[in-house]
Amino acid sequence: MTTTVRLLVGGPTTSWPTNLAQLPGPWVGADRGALRLVKLGIQPTIAVGDFDSIDDRELATVKQALTGTVVVKPDQDQTDTQLAVKTIFNRLQPDELVIYGATGGRLDHLLANLWLVLDPQFRAWAPKIKLVDLQNTVQFFLPGDYTLAKEADKKYLAFVPMLPTHLTLRDAKYQLHDAYNDYPISWASNEFVGATSHFSFDQGVVAVIQSCDAKK
Q1: Are 15 and 92 within 8 A, CB to CB?
Q2: For each of the chain's 216 residues, which pLDDT tens digit applies?
Q3: Residue 17 in contact with residue 104, Cβ under 8 Å?
Q4: Distances from the Cα of 53 to the Cαs of 32, 39, 60, 95, 128, in angstroms?
Q5: How far is it, in rounded angstroms, from Cα 184 to Cα 181?
Q6: What is the DSSP letter of 24?
Q7: Does pTM top 0.85 for this prediction?
């Protein structure tokens, strides 16, 4: 059985999936994300961060609802999200980590969350990490040959080489053969032509994004 841990960080609530509060745990909250979980009636297993975005009363509320421990960030060398990811994999050892609240809002936070998997201390965990919001699912892949399943509510497919690599897209709407880029690029607005899509690459890290248009 696959073990999934869910992490809520401090991004805007408007970017959350509509069913977030109904998703099963265990849950971990990073900084204000821990308080938001408690307000949703979810008991975090772990709360992580320097908690500079909540006051002492709110932190006490989080501690009362915890089923596990508080991990306080010792310095500013890591973001709250980085510390939370490291804590989750070291303590809970999940097969999958799904992160919410990591997109929308400040661009510097978005970039830090996207680039987290490029750090050598996190890269081995990259295939187990997903970023999910109202419109997007982002998965990270290490070199290999993959079959990707289409999400029912998503229309678009993007392949984002984050480091230099040779990328092949075999059966997407727009195909590539051994395409090389020595800088990050988003091969955006592609689409599935069936229930799955096959791709391969030889080095680096590739992010794959399934997305849909905003609902009006």
Answers
A1: no
A2: 779 999 999 899 999 999 999 999 899 999 889 889 999 999 999 998 877 777 788 888 888 888 878 887 666 678 889 999 999 999 999 999 999 999 988 899 899 999 999 999 999 999 999 999 999 999 999 999 999 999 999 999 999 999 999 999 999 999 999 999 899 999 999 999 999 999 999 999 999 999 999 876
A3: no
A4: 6, 15, 13, 30, 28
A5: 7
A6: -
A7: yes
